[in-house]
Amino acid sequence: MDRIYQKLRNLDAYPKINEDFYSRTLSGGLITLISSVLILFLFFSELGLYLHKVTETKLLVDTSRGQSLRINFDVTFPAIRCSLLSVDAIDISGEQHLDIRHDISKKRINAHGDVIEVRQEGIGAPKIDRPLQRHGGRLGHDEEYCGSCFGGEMSDDDCCNTCEEVREAYRRKGWAMTNMDLIDQCKREGFIQMIKDEEGEGCNINGSLEVNRVAGSFHFAPWKSFHQTNFLIQDLLDLQKDSYNISHRINRLAFGDNFPGVVNPLAGIQLMHDTPNGVQQFFIKVVPTIYTDIRGRTVHSNQYSVTEHFKKSELTPLDSLPGVYFFYDFSPIKVIFKEEHISFLHFMTSVCAIIGGIFTIAGIIDSFIYHGQRAIKKKVGIGKFG
């Protein structure tokens, strides 16, 4: 057993020196003090890095498919009235949605930007007294109202009781309403007068769109219900003779949910145009993004880059109708952000490197100073007695 102990003692890499052989110096004390302060400073710096979360970024090929995309928007048009402003969407699969009203609200604003009225799309049509029935007569005393769709009925049982329902029926047929004075519901609801009453107003439109996850476009245009391809824009001039000023401010435009650090480059921009009937185009590249926080919660969202182009527009042809157009496509690369802490082993390795490295360097410096002092003393001593 003593032999084993002796072998273990021979492996000691830290042989002990008798304290009688120690030589403590002033320079050694100063170096020790400075080294200790430096070690404490670097230790707490490393501890802060260990406690602070870092974000790791990865790029992968996006193999996801069959998903939908939510587009959140908030856009203000200071010179276009809400009654004429519509939101339309179309994608490369051929699916199109005209005059979208679900999950969208509009705010009428005056010239100073103050809100006049908040209007939920498709809700709140005024009631009418003794309207014209589908068979041509007026509503009887005990008769239930069923208004005509003026050719837009999909079946014999369809009824259009409001101007909005007639417009919806025409929209399903792919028709445009070119003369609302002939539509009983619109005439008695005062739709044309409502448009005239909004003269000089602007509109804030906000909400969200649920679209297929394929390349497509959506746009805001001041030609509501008059954008069918078999009608010219001249038909709209019965309602408004003035040109359209598409100046606008994008308060928010996001493809998916927000996550820490996301930057939406179009949020907050304002584009004012002196040229009437212009076409503002934004070409957007959407980058799928997955963000996982330190607690493991995951957000599936998107980032995007954008370029823009403005061109003057004439009243014809239809492909140059004034409005604000967003064309989006998807990047084949997916970005993954993951929050995480530095591992404890990495932290301990860094701490050991700090302590060992500083003590080693301090020892070299102290040894250099000590031997330099001894050499000087030796030279001085030789000079005295030589």
Search tags:
about 375 residues, alpha+beta, eight-stranded mixed β-sheet, six-stranded antiparallel β-sheet, 6 helices
pLDDT < 50 runs, ≥5 residues: 122-128, 225-241
Number of strands: 14
First-to-last CA distance? 58 Å
Anisotropy-based shape: elongated
- Sketch the major β-sheet: 8 strands, mixed
Percent helix range: 25-40%
Structural class: alpha+beta
Order of helices and strands: HHEEEEEEHHHEEEEEEEEH
Average per-residue pLDDT, rounded, comes to 79
3D structure, described in words:
- By secondary structure, the chain is an alpha+beta fold.
- The protein contains 6 helices and 14 strands.
- Strand 5 (104-109) and strand 6 (115-120) form a beta hairpin.
- Helix 2 (26-51) packs antiparallel against helix 6 (344-385).
- The two termini are 58 Å apart.
